[in-house]
Amino acid sequence: MKGWRVAILERGKLQGREQEWNISRKELNVFIELNLLSEVELKTAIATEYNPARLSFPNGADIWVKDVLNIGVDPVYLLEILKNRFLEAGGILLENTAYHAAIIHPDGVEVINSSQLVGEGSETIIKTRLLMDAMGHFSPIVRQARQGQKPDAVCLVVGTCAMGYPNNKTGDIFASFTPLKNQCQYFWEAFPARDGRTTYLFTYLDADPQRLSLECLFEDYFKLLPEYQQIELNQLTFKRALFGFFPCYKNSPLKMPWNRIFAIGDSSGNQSPLSFGGFGAMVRHLQRLTTGIDQALTTDQLSQNALSLLQPYQPSLSVTWLFQRSMSVGVQQTINPEQINQLLATVFQEMEQLGEPILKPFLQDIVKFLALTQTLSKTAIFHPGLIFKIIPQVGLNSLINWTIHYWNLGLYTGLYPAAKTLEPVFNKLPLSSQYYYYRWLDAWKYGSGQDYD
Questions:
Q1: Which of 42, 77, 170, 392 has minimal Cβ neighbours within 10 Å of its Cβ?
Q2: C-alpha dist (Å) from residue 42 to 33, 47, 52, 85, 321
Q3: The pairing of beta strand 53-56 with beta strand 171-175
Q4: How many CA atoms lie within 13 A of 267 on its CB side?
Q5: Global pTM value
Q6: Per-residue pLDDT tens for 382-412?
Q7: How far apart are CA 368 and CA 320, in angstroms?
Q8: Using an 8 Å Cβ cutoff, are 175 and 228 in contact?
Q9: What is the rounded distance in angstroms from the CA atom of residue 448 to the CA atom of residue 277?
Q10: Rounded (5°) CA angle 244-249-250
């Protein structure tokens, strides 16, 4: 739509699957702002909508919030509409065509593909100025870029969508009702869906080979689901099962080590270790990346250094590593089995008392300096014993690293409004200079969570 020739390679058929993507209504506005969907089309794409959503932990009062992850988007309809819009605008779609390899030249990239319909040996080549990798966590390009690096953490998730739940008008964003099990703290989510109710069990852990398998986690899911939802399994009609794992790297967002290749979505790791990434993380950065990629192509800023500015360091994401670490326990580590639940119940209660402007951004994977400072200060003053218990759990090195990201979060919070005042000056400079200015401006804005405003 901005005038560039674009081709999409899709290993299979470009289509959504029968699994609603949960997001907040405010975040969906970007599709209208970018003229990708009309108001009517966006409304049609919303399969379910509910309020309120709950946070629940043992020995604590439930916390209820509105308009957070309360929209279920139909991926089948959404991707079909966007696919047609892409083709109408002149886009080239190569379905059943898998990425095989890429060769980088000084003036472009040769992308070698193989047709899945014809079979081996039916390779074709596309020549392009810029290759964008949207193949996800397990992209072959990402594997080569990370050079076999072990994930710093993993999120395991299993779940089902089923009919038969008598109470299906509210959802759970974050719930726990059991102590440590299998050296894991189990967390739950639940969302009303068009086909019934979707419930997830997930846990944060390291990538130690001794960790439990997805099969083991699914067994516990079915054992605990009746207690969680107050229903017997034989009362449910299961529509589909969902399972997977999400690797997390501290070296994120990923900066590709080559010219002319750029990672987006899960390939980039551009989400916090608390979130699953996917749709929400992509939508949050859609406008920023659309503008940035357009400017990179316009000014020919396609070197590794120039493209890396499109996926900058963001302290608002990096500070959450300590939170992820505080919600997990080492394979050989010994802590009070209720410690994680006690911590979360206390922290979220303090956030609730501070008000929705503090609580809601955090629930949408956005951390702000002032909100974080207020929450930690209040928790430290009124619950010092709890803080001292967490330090040996997370380790001193993690705490020191977190302190650096915390102060960077404060620095970025101040840099963004200060740099924003210089916009009229930079708009008079050559476009190549403007590219760098706006990339730093975006880094400070998103890196401090001020995109939420």
A1: 392
A2: 12, 10, 21, 13, 34
A3: parallel
A4: 19
A5: 0.94
A6: 999 888 888 899 999 999 999 999 999 999 9
A7: 11
A8: yes
A9: 18
A10: 150
